[in-house]
Amino acid sequence: MNFARLVDRRPEITPDELVQAMTPPPRFEEARFDTYIPNPEEPSQAEAVRDCSAFAERINASTSGGGGWLRGMFGGKKKDLGDKRGLYLDGGFGVGKTHLLASLWHATEGTKSYGTFVEITNLVGALGFAETVQRLSQHRLLAIDEFELDDPGDTMLVTQLIAKLTDAGVHVAATSNTLPDKLGEGRFAAADFLREIHAMSARFSVVRVDGPDYRHRGLPEAPPPMAEEELARLAEATDGSTLDDFDELCGFLARLHASKYGRLVDGVSAVHLSGVHAAPDQDVALRLVALADRLYDRAIPVRVSGAPLSGLFTEEMLQGGYRKKYLRAISRLTALSRDLTKS
Membrane-spanning residues where (predicted)? Predict the structure, then answer.
């Protein structure tokens, strides 16, 4: 049988397309504040909705008066965010920070941009720092998902970009993605972020979003890996799907810039991976994290044979500096694997 394979694709994306693509991913196209469902056991989640709404209202205030309907829906008073141009959503993975960030983007009027930390660094690499500043300084909002602190060079690059943009009047909203050895109980310590960006600390108001990973609240574990024959049968029966050997795909990803991972899986209905096993080293593991994020963005289901998705990263990796990234990838891939369990 002949199967479509990701490794046979040759995705390309131009700098202009990178800028035009700076919108919330397909999974969050319909995200709005009123579609965010706060965990009733975590009051900070409803408070975060009000705070993000207040931030959007302030951005829009120059052209229209802000509405107050969210106060009626969620009750309580919105936090006084002052006049800071930055808003930082601080919390563990799976508490809905991306949903809130996308909702904020949708609620903001005018020209705006949205991207993950990696996508922002890719944009600077493609356009150059000065050109990126020139283009984005015309926007009212820059939303940055998954702000990372594991690469000092990239971190300082983006914080310098934020400084230039906020000085130009752009508002910036960001969510966290930090080194896990700086976390307490798996959640982000805001002070670490603020120290890392030095003078940027005065530009951000911090909003906490607490709670367990919503993707697994009351849901079953990921389905177990299937036999090779069954994987091939289901790949053939699923229109628009792909089937790849895990090792071959890992080798292919090493030759493809991470900025193209999204384009790589565009239009794919489901991804099937044969012979999955623990990543052999950290470079491979981080590429798999990037791929998992792009699959999750596009809500592309995943089936595997070999090892379970929970075994994608070694115990040593899960105890190391990129622990939070790996846990987020497992969480997202597990959620994606459930999407095909009824097939």
Answer: none
Please answer whether residues 300 and 271 qualify as being in contact, where contact means their C-beta atoms are separated by less than 8 angstroms.
yes
Quick one: 152 exposed, middle or buried, by C-beta within 10 A (0-12, 13-18, 19+)?
A: exposed
Q: Is 257 left (phi over 0), alpha (psi -120 to 50) or beta?
A: beta
Tokens encoding 307 = 């090892």
> Looking only at Cα atoms, what is the longest distance across the chain?
62
Give 281-294 pLDDT, tens digit per residue: 999 999 999 999 99
For 154-186, how does the pLDDT look when each residue is reduced to its tens digit (9 = 90+)? 778 888 899 899 999 999 999 975 533 343 334
The residue segments making up the domain with residue 206 are 31-213
Say yes or no: 265 and 176 in one domain: no
pTM of the model: 0.75
Positive/negative CA dihedral, 124, 128, 129, 132: negative
Percent of the chain predicted with pLDDT > 90: 55
